[in-house]
Fold this protein.
Amino acid sequence: MSTNRAAKSGFAAEAQRKINSKYSDELAAECLEWIKEVTGEPINTSGDMDNFYEVLKDGVMLLKLINSLEPGRVKKVNESKMAFKCMENISAFLEVAKAFGVPVQETFQTVDLWERQNLNSVVICLQSLGRKAQNFGKPSIGPKEAEKNVRNFSDEQLKAGQNVISLQYGSNKGATQSGINFGNTRHM
């Protein structure tokens, strides 16, 4: 936990445990190794939660990653350790990640990283950004992005599809529910 937050208890603690259980040390380590490879920065690539958080919490490494993918994309990187400056860095990273094509549902909230609320969502975002890296001539991580597979059918093929016999979908062959009794009948 961050030093500025009280420990959670009750339902909040249970919810936090559930979120933390989704975190994968292996995927986090893969993300950190990718960041190290792309940026050339000498960072600790251990995937445990504490290290992952320490490396990324101020947002500086995230912005160095963005500027390694597209030089000069982020003009101002706040090296200050003041909370609002760090959160500004994280927000700037998220805006650029979305601009690079990371889907909104694969991004995270600033507090997920800054307050260590959901580091798994940070891993998901970095994995998604890692798939986009090939667009910038950089090494990528995770599964390869799917490509469009557009199919063009002629009018003749479309009309042939309308001639499907409905029984090909299955039939109940006239079955009804008549004569079905479950349990005792109601005696009045």
User: Anything to note?
Assistant: The chain has a mean pLDDT of 81. The helical segments are 10-21, 25-39, 49-56, 60-69, 83-99, 110-114, 119-132, 155-161. The chain has eight helices and no strands. The two ends are 66 Å apart (CA to CA).
